[in-house]
Design a protein that fits this description.
Elements: H1 2-12, H2 14-17, H3 19-58, E1 63-67, E2 74-75, H4 76-84, E3 90-98, E4 104-110, H5 112-119, E5 130-133, H6 134-140, E6 148-149, E7 155-156, E8 159-162, E9 169-172, H7 173-180, E10 185-186, E11 188-190, H8 196-205, E12 210-214, H9 220-224, H10 226-257, H11 259-267, H12 272-317, H13 329-351, H14 354-360, H15 365-390, H16 397-427, H17 434-441, H18 443-485, E13 490-492, H19 499-507, E14 512-525, E15 528-534, E16 547-550, H20 554-557, E17 562-566, H21 567-573, E18 580-584, E19 591-599, E20 607-611, H22 613-620, E21 625-632, H23 637-644, E22 653-655, H24 656-696, H25 701-709, H26 714-756, H27 769-792, H28 796-800
Parallel strand pairs: 4-9, 5-8, 15-20, 17-19
Antiparallel strand pairs: 1-11, 1-12, 2-10, 3-4, 3-11, 5-9, 6-7, 13-21, 13-22, 14-15, 14-18, 14-21, 16-19, 17-20, 18-19
Helix pairs in contact: 1-12, 3-10, 3-12, 3-13, 3-24, 10-13, 10-16, 10-18, 10-24, 11-14, 12-13, 12-24, 14-15, 15-16, 16-17, 16-18, 16-26, 17-26, 18-24, 18-26, 18-27, 24-27, 26-27
Length: 804
C-alpha cells in the first residue's frame, strides 16, 4: 500500500510541471464522451416518450380522431358535433409553411386557452400571437417579439420564446387558418380520457372520412425511428473512438516522458505491480474529473441538437412528442459508463504499446515491436475478409453498422504497417541536399511518433468521405426522383368534392394538358401499415412513377387486378413480381392484388401501393377524392393558378417548384445532424493531431539541437519537419480514400437498404475530394506550426538539455 501511494503521488506531481499534458488527457476523454452522451441522452429521451405514448393509450388516454386518408383533413363540423355531444375535443391544425428565406417551418394551430392551461406555467406577454421553443428560435435567429415573414407576404407574430416546446411553432388555430387560408379544415382532434363504452360508441358514429386512432398506435415510432437513432449512435461512437486516440497518445507520451522517473522508482524498491496500479489510479482519477465535465457538455449538446432531431422525427416519422433534458441524472449516468469504458480501452491499448511496456519494465521493446506490427496487419486483413463475408449475410441495421465498425477497425489496424512500408520505401531515395536526405531518412522515425494521431486523422477522414458519398448520392437520387415523381405543374386538393363537377371545371381551363384524379386511404399492405392509392384509368397517369422493376406488360396487368408497390415494401417483405399481395385495414374485407411492378419512393417510410380506380371502387366502394394533378402549358400556368384561387384556398393549390423546394429543404434538415457529428469528429481528430505534434518534439530535442548546431537554420528545420508531416499525412490520406469509399458502399448498399428500405446508385463525388483533402492537410499544417514555431524560438543550449 505504501509503495502504491508513493508511486501515485510521485507520478501525479508530473502534471504540476506539465499541466497541458493533463489538459490533453482530459480533452481526449471529454470530447468524444460528451458527443456520445449527448446523442444517447436524445435517444433515451425519445424512447421514453415512445413508451409513455404507449402507456397513455393503454389507459384510454391520448386518443385522436384522424382523417382516414393519409394526407387528408377533417371538417370543423365534426368538432362542433362532438362538443355538442359532450366530448371536449381539442382541434389541431398542422401546416408546413415556407418562410421568406425558403426555410420550411412546422406551424401548429391550437386552441390558445386550452394550450396555455396545458403548459401549466405562465406564458408571460399577453400580446404574443405565437409561441416557439427557445432552441428552435436560436437556430433560426429569432428573438422575443419578432414576427415571421412568409413568402406570400403574410406575417405571424409577435413571437414569445418558451423552453421545451418542441419543433412546432404554436399559434391560435384561427390565426393559422387565416394565414394558410385553410377554411374549416382540421388536421386532427385530440380527445380527453374516454371509457371503452364511449370509444365504441364514437367508432360507430364517426363518418367514413374519419377514424379513431390512439397516439399509442404511434409506438411504431420506436420501430420506425430505431434506425435513425442507431445511425446517430454509430456516428457518436466514431467520434469517441477518434477522441480515445487523443487520450491514448497523451497518456502514452506522459508515461514515456516519465520513463526515467519510473526507472528510479523501481531502483528504490517500488515493484512493477505497484507501478501498474499507480498508472491505473492516475487514469481513474482523471476519468473522475472527466465524468461531470462530459455530463454537462453532453447535456448541452443534447439541448442544442434536440430541435433538429425533433424536426427530423416529425418530418420523417410523424412523431410530434416533446423531447427535453429534464435533469443531469441521465447524462451523468451515461457519462460514467462511457468514461469507465474509455479508461478500460485506453489501459488495454497502453499495455500493448512498446514504449509504455519499456517504461513499466516488462518485455523488451524490440520483441514487442517485431510482433505487434505484424499482428495488427494480420488482424486487419482478417477483419477485411470478415466484412466481405458478412456483407452477404446482413439482415439487420445493427449488423450492417457493426460491419462498418469492423471496416474502420481494419483500417486502423493496417495503418501502422502501411505507414512504415511507405516511409521506408521513400527513405531509399537519394537526394543531393544533406537536409533533404536527412528528412527522408528520418521519415520512419517521425511516423512512429505521429502514428497514433495519423490513425485518428485517417479514421475521421474515411468517415467524412463515406458520409459525403451517402449524402451526395442521396441528394442526386432525390433530385432525379423529384423531377420524375413530381412531374405535374399544379396539385389541387379538392377535399372529396364531386369528381364530375371538378372534371368539368378543370377541362374548361386554358392550356390544360392532363388531369389526373387522385384517391387514397390508409391501409396495410402485406401486413405493413401504409396507404393505397389510385390515379386515372389509363396508363398515362402512372408513367411519371420512377419504376425500379416491373413486368413487361405492367401497364395492362395493372388494370386487371394488379398493383404497383413502393421499394421499401418490396425489400422489407422480400416480395417478387407476380406474387399475390394482401391489402387490409381499410374498413372493408381484406382483398389481394398481383404485384406487377416496384417503384422508387425515397423519403417514405411506410408501405404504399397503387391500384386501378376500378379495383378500388370494386373492393372499397366510393373512396373520397383527394384531388388532382394538372399538367399545364407554361404560357397559361399563372392564369390557371389565379383562376383556381377563385374556387379554392391557396393551401389547397400546390405548385410543383414549391413541393420540390420543400422536399429538398427537409432533406438537408434531415442530414444536418449527421453532418454536424462528422464535423465534430474531424475537429476531435484535429485536436488529437495538435496534441501529438505538441508532444512529439520533446522526444527529439537533442537530435534537433544537433542539427541547429551543425548550421541548419531554424527556418530550414521548420520547413523540413512540415514537409515530413505532409508526406506522412499524405500516406494516411491515401489509405483513407479507399477505406472511405468502402464505408460509403456499406452505408448505401447495406445500412440504407436494411434500415430504410431504399436503394440508390453510388456516386463517388470525386470532385469533392480535393476540398476534403486540402482542408485536412491545411489543418495538419496549422496544427504543426505552433509547436514547431515554439521550438524554433528555444535556445540551442536549452534544447541540448532536453527542454525545460
Amino acid at each position: 500500500m505504501i509503495e502504491w501511494r508513493l508511486a501515485v503521488v510521485t507520478l501525479l506531481a508530473h502534471y504540476r510541471r506539465h499541466p497541458w499534458q493533463l489538459l490533453f488527457l482530459l480533452l481526449g476523454m471529454v470530447l468524444g464522451a460528451s458527443l456520445l452522451v449527448g446523442v444517447e441522452t436524445i435517444n433515451q429521451e425519445a424512447r421514453a416518450r415512445y413508451a409513455a405514448s404507449e402507456v397513455q393509450a393503454s389507459r384510454g388516454e391520448g386518443w385522436q380522431i384522424q382523417p382516414h386518408q393519409r394526407e387528408g383533413f377533417l371538417d370543423q363540423a365534426l368538432w362542433i358535433e362532438l362538443r355538442r355531444s359532450g366530448i371536449d375535443a381539442t382541434p389541431v391544425l398542422d401546416m408546413r409553411l415556407v418562410d421568406a428565406q425558403d426555410r420550411p417551418l412546422l406551424v401548429r394551430g391550437v386552441d390558445p386557452l386550452a394550450y396555455v392551461s396545458q403548459l401549466g406555467r405562465p406564458t408571460g406577454s399577453t400580446q404574443a400571437r405565437a409561441w416557439v421553443d427557445t432552441r428552435v428560435a436560436a437556430s433560426f435567429g429569432w428573438q422575443d417579439g419578432d414576427s415571421l415573414a412568409f413568402k406570400e407576404g403574410h406575417a405571424l407574430g409577435p413571437l414569445q420564446l418558451i423552453d421545451d416546446l418542441g419543433p412546432w411553432i404554436h399559434t391560435d388555430i384561427a390565426t393559422l387558418s387565416d394565414l394558410a387560408q385553410s377554411g374549416t379544415r382540421l388536421s386532427y382532434l385530440n380527445l380527453p380520457a374516454l371509457s371503452e363504452a364511449q370509444l365504441d360508441s364514437l367508432r360507430q358514429s364517426l363518418p367514413t372520412q374519419a377514424r379513431l386512432m390512439s397516439q399509442g398506435e404511434s409506438t411504431q415510432f420506436g420501430q420506425l425511428s430505431a434506425s435513425f437513432h442507431l445511425n446517430l449512435t454509430a456516428l457518436a461512437l466514431m467520434a469517441l473512438a477518434v477522441s480515445l486516440f487523443l487520450a491514448f497518445n497523451a497518456l502514452r507520451f506522459s508515461l514515456t516522458q516519465r520513463s526515467g522517473l519510473m526507472a528510479q522508482l523501481r531502483s528504490l524498491g517500488i515493484g512493477q505491480p505497484a507501478l501498474i496500479k499507480a498508472v491505473i489510479t492516475e487514469l481513474v482519477l482523471v476519468g473522475m474529473m472527466a465524468i461531470p465535465i462530459s455530463a454537462l457538455a453532453g447535456s448541452q449538446f443534447a439541448r442544442a441538437w434536440m430541435p433538429q432531431v425533433q424536426m427530423t422525427l416529425s418530418s420523417l416519422y410523424g412523431f410530434n412528442g416533446l423531447l427535453s433534458v429534464q435533469n443531469l441524472l441521465l447524462p451523468l449516468g451515461l457519462a460514467t459508463l462511457v468514461i469507465l469504458g474509455a479508461i478500460a480501452m485506453v489501459l488495454g491499448s497502453l499495455m500493448l504499446d512498446p514504449r509504455v511496456a519499456l517504461s513499466l519494465g516488462f518485455r523488451s521493446r524490440q520483441q514487442r515491436q517485431q510482433t505487434q506490427s505484424l499482428a495488427l496487419l494480420i488482424l486487419g486483413l482478417v477483419l477485411l475478409l470478415l466484412v466481405a463475408f458478412g456483407a452477404t449475410q446482413v439482415a439487420t441495421t445493427g449488423m450492417a453498422l457493426a460491419l462498418c465498425g469492423l471496416l474502420l477497425l481494419a483500417g486502423a489496424a493496417i495503418t501502422p504497417q502501411w505507414l512504415q512500408l511507405c516511409c521506408r520505401a521513400i527513405g531509399g531515395f537519394r537526394l543531393k541536399s544533406a537536409l533533404g536526405q536527412w528528412a527522408l531518412t528520418d521519415l520512419d522515425e517521425q511516423q512512429r511518433t505521429t502514428r497514433v494521431a495519423m490513425i485518428a486523422v485517417m479514421l475521421a477522414l474515411a468517415a467524412a468521405v463515406g458520409m459525403r458519398m451517402v449524402v451526395g448520392s442521396f441528394e442526386l437520387a432525390l433530385e432525379g426522383y423529384l423531377k420524375q415523381r413530381i412531374s405535374a405543374d399544379l396539385y389541387v386538393r379538392t377535399g372529396g368534392d364531386d369528381d364530375a363537377l371538378w372534371q368539368s371545371r378543370l377541362s374548361t381551363l386554358p392550356g390544360i394538358e392532363t388531369i389526373t384524379p387522385f384517391r387514397h386511404q390508409r391501409a396495410s399492405i402485406h401486413g405493413e401499415p401504409g396507404s393505397i392509392a389510385s390515379l386515372g384509368s389509363s396508363v398515362k397517369h402512372y408513367q411519371h412513377l420512377p419504376i425500379k422493376v416491373a413486368e413487361q406488360d405492367w401497364h395492362k396487368t395493372l388494370f386487371d387486378g394488379g398493383c404497383l408497390i413502393n421499394e421499401r415494401t418490396q425489400l422489407m417483405a422480400d416480395l417478387t413480381l407476380g406474387q399475390s399481395i394482401p391489402i387490409g385495414d381499410t374498413g372493408q374485407p381484406e382483398f389481394s392484388c398481383t404485384l406487377v411492378g416496384v417503384y422508387y419512393d425515397y423519403g417514405n417510410l411506410k408501405a404504399q401501393a397503387f391500384i386501378s380506380p376500378r379495383l378500388m371502387q370494386e373492393k372499397l366502394g366510393e373512396v373520397p377524392l383527394a384531388g388532382y394533378s394538372l399538367e399545364v402549358s407554361e404560357a397559361t400556368r399563372q392564369q390557371v393558378y389565379q383562376t383556381l384561387l377563385q374556387w379554392l384556398s391557396p393551401a389547397q393549390i400546390i405548385q410543383r417548384e414549391r413541393i420540390r423546394n420543400l422536399a429538398t429543404a427537409m432533406f438537408h434538415q434531415t442530414f444536418a445532424v449527421t453532418t454536424a457529428l462528422n464535423i465534430l469528429t474531424l475537429l476531435v481528430a484535429a485536436v488529437g493531431l495538435f496534441a501529438s505534434l505538441s508532444s512529439v518534439e520533446h522526444h527529439r530535442l537533442s537530435q534537433l539541437a544537433t542539427l541547429l548546431a551543425l548550421g541548419i537554420t531554424r527556418k530550414q528545420l521548420l520547413l523540413a519537419q512540415l514537409a515530413q508531416l505532409g508526406v506522412i499525412a499524405l500516406f494516411a490520406l491515401i489509405l483513407a480514400l479507399p477505406l472511405g469509399m468502402a464505408l460509403g458502399h456499406l452505408l448505401l448498399d447495406l445500412v440504407n437498404r436494411v434500415a430504410f428500405g431504399w436503394t440508390m446508385p453510388v456516386h463517388y463525388l470525386m470532385e469533392d475530394w480535393p476540398s476534403l483533402l486540402g482542408s485536412l492537410l491545411l489543418a495538419l499544417l496549422l496544427s504543426a506550426l505552433w509547436p514547431l514555431w515554439r521550438l524554433s524560438k528555444a535556445p540551442v543550449s536549452q534544447l541540448m538539455k532536453g527542454g525545460s
